[in-house]
């Protein structure tokens, strides 16, 4: 199979830096470009200042640079139909068309699909009006989960501990304009209890390959406290997902999900990221995302023995059946360095100083970074860096990652101190 020689990666986060690095490591030695990228990606690959929501600009860039494959990182361009436009122009793309991106962009669409195909998920009610929403609330126990339908950058989900908090969330979403159009429809969903895991699946129609397991840390604070974020750290493998449990997840959730999506007439090519709660009565779907996770990617891709380019190319060509994945038997752990204040307001422009050498197995992926006028690398986003360490044990990976986090100088840096602690403490 001849692999593409020129690839455009769309996005600007740690996920995209990991994609760029991993694709550059392909034995096919492709040329890799990125739009818009960040200061770290620019050290590895040419970057072009085209925003992720500029679909026409990204199409024009792919045509001008004659790329043979576009790999789309974030959900926004997918939901805006970037893949549809690229395919219409005969440019191969890894990432679903807008119909597939709806599985992430509309929580009510996904919940209806899960219920229709009897895929395990929490019971839920659908509402556009306040009065029936409140009436339903009063029939359910607390805690209860209120979800805005549309994309809300991780902020559209409220796990309400009390009825008063739940009522306030219903009002905020349906009457307020805090969530804009994303909040004009809501889901009220029963609370699931257990550990979460991220199952990333490379999908091509009815064929799929499950990537190595991982767990994210969504809350800002140590001990899983404080508000939800995009993700503060990850590790892979997630030992809580034993081979027997992964088999069950495949049988009860992955296979039925892929079949349901195909049965709905969606020709899905890209990553289906299934957020799963491991409840006492079995695995249950929390959500789908239609892209690689961030920071899951920073621990999953470095563990692949298989050439990522060969895998993604097989998916875009519809040649995924029988694809066998080789995974390194090492542990990966990623600590996200954020700007102090994130996920609320935070400063930009703080100078970052990197240690001159990194411990073996450590890679620093850039997320929200830029260069200032003096040419120094500075903070430019909420999540700034992802420090990934690979080691024979999770504990060694944590030690190496944290030594690097401590050695990176930046006045406004913040990171959790307990990434991986749950798995380490279980032993
Ligand atoms: P989502 O944006 O759907 O990923 O939701 C964000 C986070 O809210 C999830 O990662 C969970 O931690 C939490 N969450 C969402 N739905 C539920 C639920 N039904 N029960 C408990 N927690 C939930
Ligand atoms: N880390 C969770 C996400 O990418 O949505």
Give an overview of the whole structure.
- Helix content is 30%, strand content 26%.
- The chain is of the alpha+beta class and 427 residues long.
- The protein folds into four domains: 6-97, Rossmann fold, CATH 3.40.50; 123-190, Dna Ligase, domain 1 (2-Layer Sandwich), CATH 3.30.1490; 193-316, 2-Layer Sandwich (D-amino Acid Aminotransferase, Chain A, domain 1); 331-426, Alpha-Beta Complex (Glycinamide Ribonucleotide Synthetase, Chain A, domain 4).
- The strands form six sheets. Strands 11, 14, 17, 18, 21 and 22 form a six-stranded antiparallel β-sheet that branches.
- The model has no long low-confidence stretch (mean pLDDT 95).
Work out the radius of gyration. Answer: 21 Å
Helicity, as a percent range: 25-40%
Number of strands: 22
Largest sheet descriptor:
6 strands, antiparallel
Strand content: 25-35%
Measured between the Cα atoms of the first and last residue, the distance is 44 Å
Please name the fourth-level CATH homologous superfamily of the largest domain: ATP-grasp fold, B domain
Tally of domains: 4
What are the segments in which pLDDT stays under 50 over at least 5 consecutive residues? none
Give the class from helix and strand content and strand pairing.
Answer: alpha+beta
What does the overall shape look like? globular
In CATH, the architecture of the largest domain is 2-Layer Sandwich
Bound molecules: adenosine monophosphate, glycine
CATH classification class of the largest domain: Alpha Beta
């Amino acid at each position: 199979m001849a692999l593409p020689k020129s690839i455009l990666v769309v996005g600007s986060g740690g996920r995209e830096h990991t994609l760029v690095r991993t694709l550059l490591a392909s034995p096919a030695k492709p040329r890799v470009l990125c739009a818009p990228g960040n200061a770290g990606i620019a050290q590895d690959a040419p970057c072009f200042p085209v925003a992720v929501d500029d679909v026409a600009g990204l199409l024009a860039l792919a045509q001008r640079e004659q790329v043979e494959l576009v790999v789309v990182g974030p959900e926004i361009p997918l939901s805006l139909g970037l893949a549809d436009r690229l395919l219409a122009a005969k440019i191969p793309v890894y990432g679903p068309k807008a119909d597939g991106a709806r599985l992430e962009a509309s929580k009510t669409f996904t919940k209806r699909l899960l219920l229709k195909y009897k895929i395990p998920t929490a019971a839920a009610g659908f509402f556009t009006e306040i009065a029936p929403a409140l009436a339903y609330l009063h029939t359910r126990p607390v805690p209860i989960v209120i979800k805005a339908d549309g994309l809300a950058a991780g902020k559209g989900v409220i796990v309400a501990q009390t009825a008063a908090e739940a009522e306030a969330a219903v009002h905020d979403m349906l009457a307020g304009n805090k969530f804009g159009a994303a909040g004009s429809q809501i889901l009220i969903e029963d609370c699931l209890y257990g550990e979460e895991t991220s199952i990333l699946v490379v999908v091509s129609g009815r064929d799929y390959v499950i990537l190595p397991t991982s767990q994210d840390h969504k809350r800002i604070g140590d001990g899983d406290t404080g508000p939800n974020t995009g993700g503060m750290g990850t590790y892979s493998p997630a030992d809580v997902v034993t081979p027997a449990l992964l088999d069950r997840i495949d049988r009860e959730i992955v296979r039925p999900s892929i079949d349901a999506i195909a049965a709905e007439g969606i020709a899905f090519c890209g990553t289906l990221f299934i957020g799963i709660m491991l409840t006492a009565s079995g695995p249950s779907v929390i959500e789908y995302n239609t892209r690689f996770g961030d920071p899951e990617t920073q621990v999953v891709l470095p563990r692949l023995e298989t050439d990522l380019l060969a895998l993604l190319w097989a998916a875009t060509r519809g040649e995924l059946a029988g694809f066998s994945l080789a995974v390194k038997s090492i542990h990966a752990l990623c600590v996200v360095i954020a700007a102090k204040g994130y996920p609320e307001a935070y400063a930009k422009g703080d100078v970052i100083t990197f240690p001159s050498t990194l411990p073996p197995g450590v890679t620093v992926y850039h997320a929200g970074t830029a260069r200032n006028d003096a040419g120094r690398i500075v903070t430019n986003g909420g999540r700034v860096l992802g420090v990934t360490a690979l080691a024979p044990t999770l504990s060694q990976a944590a030690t190496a990652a944290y030594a690097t986090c401590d050695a990176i100088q930046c006045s406004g840096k913040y990171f959790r101190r307990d990434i991986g602690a749950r798995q380490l403490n279980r032993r």
